[in-house]
Prior knowledge:
Layout: E1 2-15, E2 19-26, E3 30-36, E4 53-59, E5 68-75, H1 84-100, H2 108-123, H3 127-144, H4 159-177, H5 182-198
Antiparallel strand pairs: 1-2, 1-4, 2-3, 4-5
Helix pairs in contact: 1-2, 1-3, 1-5, 2-3, 3-4, 4-5
Pfam family, one: RecO_N
InterPro entries: DNA_rep/recomb_RecO_N, NA-bd_OB-fold, RecO
GO biological process, one term: DNA repair
Amino acid sequence: MLIRAPAILCSVLPNGEHGAIIRVLTADHGLAAAYVAGARGRELRPVLIPGNLIEVEVRSRTASQLPSARVELVASRGPWLSEPLPSAGIGWACALTAATLPEGHPYPVLYESLVALLDAICHAPSARGWARVLAGYEVLLLREVGYGTAPAPPPDEQWPDLLARLERQGKAIANRLLADRTRDVMGARAILLGRLRRIGFDA
């Protein structure tokens, strides 16, 4: 297997003394897992941040072997990770994607939508702007993997109604997509929803 493509880095799990296993989402190849040597070194630490846009090369010699990867930074989300709301939004979107999509199945619409969501989180004037994009991404993901027919949130939906929608969608995600690992992944969503509730009606 050989993949060379732009990708969204969705998760990074330390492995061994110096490496990490990453999960990346590409438009044409879907979600892929690979080992990155030297992941905890000075050069790669700022590259291997969930939410970053990267160029990735994934190689595997045998079907039973975990592929290896080389990565190059295209766009960093690092500057926004010091802000509580953007960091929670990026963390949840990436964790959800990494935990729920099957590997090797292309979802080009989800790829483009996740890029748009991450851009919105980083550049919208407030969380009130990107929370609706996040709700739409969740609806799309549920639909793409066969667990939903709900419409996207309307553009004029009031803030309390949008929060209520996110609460409902969270239950669907936990029950349908993450039934065997709810605590691990939904914790990131609980942090996000808690912070969204605190911004108030005038955010």
